[in-house]
Amino acid sequence: MNRQERSAYRFGKSRMFLNVLLCSVFCLPHVTGRALSTLNTNGSSDVVDVKWLEGKPALNVGTTFGLPWSRGKYPGDRVAFSASTDDGEDVTIQSWVTSRWADGSIKWTGHAIPGSASVPDGYKITASKGASRQIRRESIKVDDAQDEIVVDTGKLKASFPKSGNVLVGSLSTPSGKVVGKNGKLVLQSQSAVPDTTGSSAKADISYYQLESKINTTTIDEDTSVRTLVTVRGDHRISESESTATHDPWIPFTVRFYLYANSDTIRVVHSLVFDGVADKDFITGIGLRFDIPLVGEELYDRHIRIAGVDGGFLNEAVRGITGLRRDPGEAVRVAQFEGKKTPDASTWATTVSSRLQWIPAWNDYTLTQLSPDGFTLKKRTKAGQSWVKIPGGTRAGGLAYLGGATAGGLAVGLRDFWKRYPTSIDISNAATDSGQLTLWLYSPAGEPMDLRPFHDGLGQDTYAKQLDALEITYEDYEEGYNTPQGVGRTNEIFIRPFESTPSSDELATFTEYINAPPVLVPQPEYIKQTEAAGTYWDVPNNTTATPAVQTLETHLDFLNKFYQGQVEGRRWFGFWDYGDFMHTYDVDRHVWRYDIGGYAWDNSELSPDLFIWNYFLRTGRADVYRFAEAHVRHTSEVDIYHLGPYSGFGTRHGVQHWGDSAKQIRVSTPIYRQIFYYVSGGDERIGELLHGLMDADKTFLTVDPRRKIREDNGTYVPDPTAIDLDLGIDFSGLTAIWLIEWERRGPRWEEARSKLKEILESLGSLKNGFVTGLGLYNINTGEVKPPAADPENKGIVDVTHLSASFGLPEIVAQITHYLGDDLPASFDQAWLDYCYYYGASAAEQTARYGQAFGKLNLRQGHSRLTAYAAKRSGNATLAARAWNEFLSTDGFAPTAPWSSVSLTGSQVLTPVDEAAWITTNDFALYGLAAIENLAQIGDAL
Ligand SMILES: *[C@@H]1O[C@H](CO)[C@@H](O)[C@H](O)[C@H]1NC(C)=O
Ligand SMILES: *[C@@H]1O[C@H](CO)[C@@H](O)[C@H](O)[C@H]1NC(C)=O
Ligand SMILES: *[C@@H]1O[C@H](CO)[C@@H](O)[C@H](O)[C@H]1NC(C)=O
Ligand SMILES: *[C@@H]1O[C@H](CO)[C@@H](O)[C@H](O)[C@H]1NC(C)=O
Ligand SMILES: *[C@@H]1O[C@H](CO)[C@@H](O)[C@H](O)[C@H]1NC(C)=O
Ligand SMILES: *[C@@H]1O[C@H](CO)[C@@H](O)[C@H](O)[C@H]1NC(C)=O
């Protein structure tokens, strides 16, 4: 920043914030507790350092990040945030609250900084109490008119219509050149796929061409540093096409992020599949822009397509290099470098008199149908043969079309090759209006086939399905294996240019879009605020004993191994990228990608929490990127966003949506919480978190216990007495409510009320969590004793899964959040569960009248024991926890803790193998190690 800008924006403009303000004024008295008496309410200020995750990036086109704050530190709304570079130069900042403590004080904030020509190593963010300086220069101009929104960042201007099929009306450069128009979504699909066994002839297939239809285009209230335009709609048959008819489908939400002083738009494109798997086969999902090329000579029009590792295809529509006659070196060099060629009168006439004989290349296509290779081709026009261009391995995912004088547009897709099949089309480049289409799903690939992978194998009763579970570990039931309602989010970047840029500049930009720079505070600071959980600590090499160092080495190994497996096992693809697999097949040397519940992991036993907490404690970039890809996958693909299973997720399986176990344990928002806050409140994740508020109503449609209940023929769910698992369902529901409450979302008071009700009522069950099941009232949150124990005499029903989906973490958060408002009976119920799960049968019997029976996942449950040990300060119990961690089940200290390289005919490609690893143990060992070290590290 070379401008002396100063901003201390006392936020108060955004709609969400107004709600927050009202609530913190009027609602605060209801939640005051003794915790408030320890508030530090003096007039201090804080300066927090944020640094780039991967070190100083080459570009800063504006970014958003999150910061945590200690409870009570900034109690009111009169907090001013200001920012400077670490060299002390003032930087404009936009700030908003993403989360509040129970007492109303600020827990997390989001901040946006503008683009800048030079990039500092980091920033210092200052929070000051009481101040309400409003010195702020609006660098973004926004015109929110009746039919369109126009945004001018100072470095680009974009218009966003409020109706019709065009999401981006026009894109122009500061000098006023329009370099992109009519940006719309395109979708194509077909009603069937030709079956090689001959069942559906090609003639029976209908083909559909659809495009975006806008329902709403909206803009956030505060647009000062970052303007967010959100467009929602669906896809409809395009009026110009005379294809078969199709109902509107594939709802989309596309978010355009524009930063002050930035020449780049970040686009977050989210869709939900609402089709029918055996009737709707998508053959292409794209974003298309028209690029005006009027008046630009064909030899001054440039095609740039990113190849491998910063490489580029550098071509002109009418190439004048390599010809039999030479136009002159200056002409050749100018064209190759994308500069305006010297006036044609200066060229050798041997060339200038014969330009009409040189083919003009109208169309280019790059296609990435696998993570290992892409192909390229071009043609002069439709009806003529394509000419092959040598391709490569992994394309950078960016293309530019434009001219030396007219300017042009670059569009790129993050993780292009990782999300194959993808492609980029440039078309009509030899006409007055070229097109650039970025395909998030390539029409050159096979139709997207979301049908079940088997026909049911005759499993037409629960008894047969349960028996099949015994062999393939798949929990099958006809009709439940539907993709209807799953989603996917992609990130796209758009950048107008005044003239064709150098390919080095485009290479830098390609690098940028594939790892958009992230600002993060230091782990020690996050830890100290206690705003991201109190159950992890920052490793300290100086004080670490050899035993602690060994654990750290193991955690490091596990993270690197899984990151490496993504590459080695090619865990890539439109729907798959971001997930990993559940169990390994030691005989075939492959992960069990084709065996029921052993294939895609779908967050089984909380690997999400392991990798995010590992990021928090280390601040490591590789861990962040791994966790980021994972959260984008699990939050979208493994969960239903509409339809009968809305709000539930799917158990692990061969297809992400295939298993018939639909549960809140998979959709639980605690898995997205850290990313949400660290990212400054990623709006897509935010809407998914809030979207779970009615997940409990899905119990009325889907009974998770249907296959095992005795009254399976007659059971009709009663909304005031749903069978609720006090482990896996309880942890999901309470996470939904705590997060809605701390975000002060639109239904936060309802969330708080239900949360308090469930805590109180669980605490009054005779055996607390040990009860296993309760009767849940959807309207109030209350749980009553199970049907088998109407008089609350006490039931003992403990399973290894109850605490395995984020229960210890959400209870720790709730306990910390409520402070002295936590019902003591609830606290005791949890401490009892933590103590007795791993206690001896004799102790269990003495306490509950009977033993819990044989329980496993004891390594993972050692973190519950550790919690009880920390709370009671009981050293014997701490020792018991470490013993459970080191010497029961899971990964043993004597495990190899290494992988081996496999080559030769036993494997398809050379791979690293750790046959002793399972993802269940990866998750549990990782989480337990982190939490045990934080809670009872001294006892190791
Ligand atoms: C204000 O709070 C800070 C942080 O807790 C503390 O170090 C400082 O002494 C306090 N100042 C006053 C004047 O109370
Ligand atoms: C269109 O937007 C309106 C207003 O937000 C909403 O009520 C309606 O459900 C939306 N329609 C569709 C098809 O999404
Ligand atoms: C219901 O459960 C009983 C006992 O487990 C079983 O015999 C019956 O087949 C089940 N009903 C269905 C529809 O599977
Ligand atoms: C590590 O521990 C040493 C000794 O207690 C302490 O001086 C140092 O500040 C700690 N480092 C971190 C990063 O916490
Ligand atoms: C701790 O040691 C590991 C391994 O030697 C090293 O990679 C890491 O950077 C060290 N961490 C700190 C905070 O010094
Ligand atoms: C501490 O934990 C041990 C091991 O579980 C237990 O036997 C003992 O009773 C506990 N001590 C206290 C004071 O609770």
UniProtKB/TrEMBL annotation:
Residues 516-939 form the PcRGLX/YetA-like C-terminal alpha/alpha toroid domain. Transmembrane segments: none annotated. The keyword Signal applies. Residues 48-127 form the PcRGLX/YetA-like N-terminal RIFT barrel domain. Keywords: Signal. Residues 140-510 form the PcRGLX/YetA-like central beta-sandwich domain. InterPro entries: PcRGLX/YetA-like, PcRGLX/YetA_2nd, PcRGLX/YetA_3rd, PcRGLX_1st. It comes from the Eukaryota. This is Tat pathway signal sequence domain protein.
